[in-house]
Amino acid sequence: MSERIGFITRVQSFSACHRLHSKSLSDEENKRIFGKCNNPNGHGHNYTGELLYMIACISNAYVSCISFMHTREQVFVTYVFLVEVTVRGKIDRNTGMVMNLTDLKEYIEEAIMKPLDHKNLDLDVPYFADVVSTTENLSVFIWDSMVKLLPPGSLYEIKIYETDKNIVVYRGE
């Protein structure tokens, strides 16, 4: 019997706020390109993510929680981001698993929750000091953080639901 390949996805949500603003653009260009997301006081998301390691699809996983974050005498509205992390690998004949989900949960805690949850991405996460904190760049940050912890070649996809209508997928390319 040939080896079987499986995908496992773990969904995680975290709250964060940010401001879309590029240092390489003028204030007027930033306002034109990013619109209300260029608000000097920032805006927020409740990010929900999915890590796919086994076949699992969650299409209505957006969480619309809103909270407030007080930072440096400003009030930032935060949202919940939904993130899906998907890993790919051979299904072990002895355990029946692609990966132990307890291990995957620990990797997500280290790579996503500790650096991002309840943070101002622009002020609290050094990566975004010189990188615009778009959801696309957030997916790259999460990919780069997860790939350091997972077995080589196992990370398949990072999917972030910024809203119920805006979804970013990144596969390390």
Automatic annotation (TrEMBL):
Source taxon at top rank: Eukaryota
Q: What is its EC number?
A: 4.2.3.12
InterPro entries referenced in this protein's UniProt entry, alphabetically: 6-PTP_synth/QueD, 6-PTP_synth/QueD_sf, PTPS_Cys_AS, PTPS_His_AS
Keyword field: Lyase, Metal-binding, Tetrahydrobiopterin biosynthesis, Zinc
Give the stretches traversing the membrane: none
Tell me one GO molecular function of this protein: metal ion binding
Q: Which leading EC class covers this enzyme?
A: lyase
**UniProt function note:** Involved in the biosynthesis of tetrahydrobiopterin, an essential cofactor of aromatic amino acid hydroxylases. Catalyzes the transformation of 7,8-dihydroneopterin triphosphate into 6-pyruvoyl tetrahydropterin.
Per its record, how is this protein called by name? 6-pyruvoyl tetrahydrobiopterin synthase
- Gene this chain is encoded by: pts
